[in-house]
Amino acid sequence: MTVAGGEKKTNSAVMPTYSRIDLNFERGEGAWLITDTGERYLDFSGGIAVNLLGHAHPALTAALKAQAEKLWHISNLYRIPDGERLARRLADLTFADYVFFTNSGAEALECSIKTARKYHSANGHPERYRIITFEGAFHGRTLATIAAGGNKKYLDGFGPAVPGFDQVPFGDLDAVKAAITPETAAILIEPMQGEGGIRVLAPGALRDLRRIADENGILLALDEVQCGMGRTGRLFAYEWAGITPDIMAVAKGIGGGFPLGACLATAEAAKGMVAGSHGSTYGGNPLAMAIGNAVLDEVANDVFLDRVRQTALLFKQRLAEIKDRHPSIIAEVRGEGLLLGLRTVVPNGDLVAALRAQKMLSVPAGDNVVRILPPLNITEAEMNEAISRLDAACTALEATAKDATKPAA
Questions:
Q1: Residue 100 CB: number of other CB atoms within 10 A?
Q2: In this structure, are residues 136 and 369 in contact, taking their beta carbons and an 8 Å threshold?
Q3: Distance between CA atoms of 265 and 263, rounded to whole angstroms?
Q4: What does the CA dihedral 240, 242, 248, 249 come to, rounded to 10 degrees?
Q5: Cα–Cα distance measured from residue 155 to residue 174, given in angstroms and rounded to the nearest whole number
Q6: How many Å apart are CA 350 and CA 373, to the nearest integer?
Q7: What domains sit in the chain, N to C, each tagged with a CATH number?
Q8: CA angle at residue 331 from 397 to 171, to 5 degrees?
Q9: Counting CB atoms within 10 angstroms of each CB, which of 98, 137, 220, 258 has the fewest?
Q10: Which among 260, 326, 277, 304 has a CA at the least distance from the CA of 80?
Q11: For residue range 65-91, what is the model confidence (pLDDT) as tens digits?
Q12: Any residues with CB less than 8 A from the CB of 404 and at least 6 apart, and which?
């Protein structure tokens, strides 16, 4: 069937904003996804760092079932006890005094941006609204968060960018200092860029940003949507630097696959966020809160996080061996904890496709990187299986390259 202009109309009524891979997964078991035809795929994409504990984790499934039989939604007009409990637990585990619950990372960043701006307005300086952000960042897909990220491909076609964001090179402290003006409200940074190519901000640089913010009377806001919730081996990545931010956005792993995000803030930073200043219809609903508490039960303990660090150390060593074995395919192993990246010599999409041919799922990122995002509770056997399939994928790409250089018969 064709439509006006001659374009072919597909059978799907879903808006075509994704280039979807023709795979139909009907169930999951831990680190594995199973298609409707029974094929098993090793899932090291994790719904893009979302499925923190893999698929169909029994504790999360039980929490969802129990809550689903009681109450789904009542709105934030009334108290939600599990939400109050989750907020208190997050506050006690972090720097924060207050938590605002959202449905996604983009919404958590929107709340973070509004909180930073409102802080200065509440202090009598509404002119301080600009936020310093970093090249390569990804903060979401809303109009404000694509402006914060500054990526042209996400901004094109949506009219004038939301004003108030000043991008500087990632980790360039001199550029940060030069960008500060009387209108600057905050610095917003990912301690580890995910979409930008698994680029890690050195702990010393994060400490310097904290100092720069303090010296200039501005706030430090962190985006830990992808690198938080144990992904780097600490509950939150800022802990590696020994500092505390003023505001932090969290999502992805915090719900273990259920839509959930949060904006955490100190009482001082949140002083302008009073009744009526912000809101969300679904944010903090009873289903999300039950699962958020169940995720925290599993992740927020020293035994679990120590195991993540030990697994990550071994896995990174094994990935380095693969890099050394296939230097024409992999140039560098990046990342911390189980947020890892392979910067490739070949186009990163080629390695993603080769891995998929070996029935292993990964995710591309900027800077020609392939993200490796296993569940935090992977077993050694699953790690060994991933290494075996990565080795096979690299070998297949090498064979393809060799065939391409053979002279024609």
A1: 25
A2: no
A3: 7
A4: 10
A5: 27
A6: 18
A7: 25-57+302-405 (3.90.1150.10), 71-299 (3.40.640.10)
A8: 140
A9: 98
A10: 260
A11: 999 999 999 999 999 999 999 999 999
A12: none
Tell me how far the alpha carbon of residue 202 is from its chain's centroid.
Answer: 18
Please state, in angstroms and rounded to a whole number, the distance separating the CA atoms of residues 300 and 59.
14
Token pair 């060799």 in the structure block, residue: 402
Instruction: Report how far residue 314's alpha carbon sits from residue 407's, in angstroms, rounded to the nearest whole number.
Output: 42
**Sign of the CA dihedral 60, 65, 68, 69?**
negative
**Cβ density class 26-38: b for 16+ within 10 Å, e for less:** eebebbbbeeeee
Tokens read off for 145: 């968060």
Q: How far is CA 122 from the centre of its chain?
A: 30
Q: Residue 52 — φ and ψ, nearest 5°?
A: -60, -35
d(CA 178, CA 366): 26
Residue 316's nearest CA partner among 330, 286, 336 is 336
- The one-letter amino acid at 228: G
DSSP annotation string for 176-219: HHHH--TTEEEEEE-SEETTTTSEEPPHHHHHHHHHHHHHTT-E
Output the pLDDT for position 5: 45
Say if CB 248 and CB 238 are below 8 A apart.
yes
301-326 confidence digits (pLDDT tens): 999 999 999 999 999 999 999 999 99
From residue 404, alpha-carbon distances to 99, 184, 353, 397 in Å are: 56, 54, 18, 11
- Within 272-379, residue ranges assigned H as helices are 286-299, 302-325, 348-357
How crowded is residue 379: how many other Cβ atoms within 10 Å of its Cβ? 13
